[in-house]
Amino acid sequence: xxxxxxxxxxxxxxxxxxxxxxxxxxxxxxxxxxxxxxxxxxxxxxxxxxxxxxxxxxxxxxxxxxxxxxxxxxxxxxxxxxxxxxxxxxxxxxxxxxxxxxxxxxxxxxxxxxxxxxxxxxxxxxxxxxxxxxxxxxxxxxxxxxxxxxxxxxxxxxxxxxxxxxxxxxxxxxxxxxxxxxxxxxxxxxxxxxxxxxxxxxxxxxxxxxxxxxxxxxxxxxxxxxxxxxxxxxxxxxxxxxxxxxxxxxxxxxxxxxxxxxxxxxxxxxxxxxxxxxxxxxxxxxxxxxxxxxxxxxxxxxxxxxxxxxxxxxxxxxxxxxxxxxxxxxxxxxxxxxxxxxxxxxxxxxxxxxxxxxxxxxxxxxxxxxxxxxxxxxxxxxxxxxxxxxxxxxxxxxxxxxxxxxxxxxxxxxxxxxxxxxxxxxxxxxxxxxxxxxxxxxxxxxxxxxxxxxxxxxxxxxxxxxxxxxxxxxxxxxxxxxxxxxxxxxxxxxxxxxxxxxxxxxxxxxxxxxxxx
Length: 517
Hints:
Blueprint: H1 7-21, H2 26-54, E1 58-61, E2 72-75, H3 77-104, H4 111-130, H5 134-152, H6 158-189, H7 194-201, H8 206-224, H9 233-236, H10 242-267, H11 274-293, H12 298-319, H13 322-353, H14 364-367, H15 369-383, H16 389-404, H17 407-436, H18 442-448, H19 469-487, H20 489-503, H21 509-516
Antiparallel strand pairs: 1-2
């Protein structure tokens, strides 16, 4: 089974090379990209089943170098699960983008550029998930960030170039902090292998541990968009093409959250900053959702809810119990799928109505009843209505917090409930205005939501566009996956519980050496 591990990264990189060679053959490019992501999905599913059955991780030392001197690729339950979910999401968004490219031509989605860049982005995400040392994790981040720089500015419009510049600057600052932290950790403990760092860092003075710990948390916090370093996200994501925004919203911040999970449960388990993380989680929850309520543009509403719901993940991570970590992993899977689905649905709304401003769009219930369903189901899921996965994940987090029984935990539970209600309000207000409202209701409704009059507006777009069937099918498929998270919540949550238990028992260097063999 260990021979499958390197293929998770190798296949996307090889696929990117092939799509570059055949840049003048869009159909072949699309087949290669789709086939590569489908193959990674199968490999990840096989590895997840095998790792779970074996109850131990798989490790591969690249190039045959002895551990810890070589690059180690490390797949445990968490890494395998996130690679599987990510590859499914990437494949669905790819199908959506194929339909958009076929309908709009290469000006909006230049296929010759999009496909190789998209596969490189996938390789970076997968490499980050299976990295066994900090420097390889850094490399994974840089691979996905370089690809994201290209994708976020596709089409080269003024707004995309402007927001892309902000995104690049913020990402570079985060990367510099991460690289500086790696250098300091290496200077302090003489290694960047995660298992070896975890063994040695506990021997450092508490002050040194705290400095190194906080540097990593700040670097990963910028990537995860936690408050107060989340300012860049609501302005960066909404201007990108619909499929790019969807995959960014679903996956890029989760790579940062994943790195925080590794940091808190394995690298710095002996350095406790949980109280600080709880405060940050509460601020992220509340500030993000208040921003969402104040928006009149669908992509900005979703971008602020994205920031807000990262707070739930930091909340679960800060509780630091097996149940809480398991609930956090479940919520990450839920949020990847649901947030991506909502952005795809908004992409369809933009094409159908010619705008994503809830002050301009109306009457879509009659014009596009299927689209109403495709938005409504993930919206109430994200809002936490029972019996959907959003409700299951939030209740699990609240139960874990209640077991700790501290005043701060009670405050976090109340903050989480308020955030859930306001999320539901913002998303259902948008659904009501865009789908239920008729044209003659415009003056009455605008009077009730007059406070949105000064909210940032969407890019001007007055023409509607044809919606190819493949775009609707891709979005409907993602909606089906969101429902599957509820239908199969039992076995999935049991897997997440095992992940939580395993993360609080960090793997040792000796075990990795034995697996890498």
